[in-house]
From TrEMBL:
Active-site residues from the entry: 141 (proton acceptor), 143 (nucleophile)
Name listed for the protein in its UniProt record: GTP cyclohydrolase-2
PANTHER family: 3,4-DIHYDROXY-2-BUTANONE 4-PHOSPHATE SYNTHASE (PTHR21327:SF18), GTP CYCLOHYDROLASE II-RELATED (PTHR21327)
Residue positions binding GTP: 63-67, 84, 107-109, 129, 164, 169
Cofactor: binding details: Binds 1 zinc ion per subunit.
This protein's record includes keyword Repeat: no
Entry similarity comment: Belongs to the GTP cyclohydrolase II family.
Amino acid sequence: MTDKFGVLGKKSSQRTGVERVVNAPLPTVYGKFQAIGYLDHDRGDEQVALVYGEPGAENVLTRLHSECLTGDAFGSQHCECGDQLESALRAVVAEGRGIVVYLRGHEGRGIGLLGKLRAMALQAEGLDTVEANVALGFPVDARDYKVAADILRDMGVRSVRLMSNNPRKREALVENGIQVAEEVPLLIEPCENNITYLRTKRERLDHRLPHLDAVAHWS
């Protein structure tokens, strides 16, 4: 059985890389997407790309969104993840075409949900997000974006306009054969609950967050 995005497959223990498994319509409050499900045979993760319109191959407006249960589902103000996901979905609909690759296995910059919650508990005691990961024996950032490049390549995408403030995402895509024609900032208005977290991302993780200068008065 096939669809316009390719063969619908089943898991095979002999395979490596990503396998396209299913394509299903997904109506949302933002617009009607196609949800393309993938299996990452290397890591065992199930992945999904939300596709709007006919993205094409070049200069595709794209978001690589790391899974964040607390932000995406619970509306946590500890981070800006939920707002970034919503903004990205709205942006591709406004553009008329685009892709949001939702990267499972990226919770807490790759340390998992329980690891992230433990890190958040340490942050409540005064450590920043980098210090908390290190104190728990975790890498500062354990995410791998190769699977995202593999998914984009499977969909025939050669270059993207990447919605991100994180330079590592651009570097990872380029290293894995996807060109980045433009980096599109995805800046979310900070609040008092996440300003310290965002400043740490800018100062210690090199995220491009120039809008934080406007709230320099917050301690």
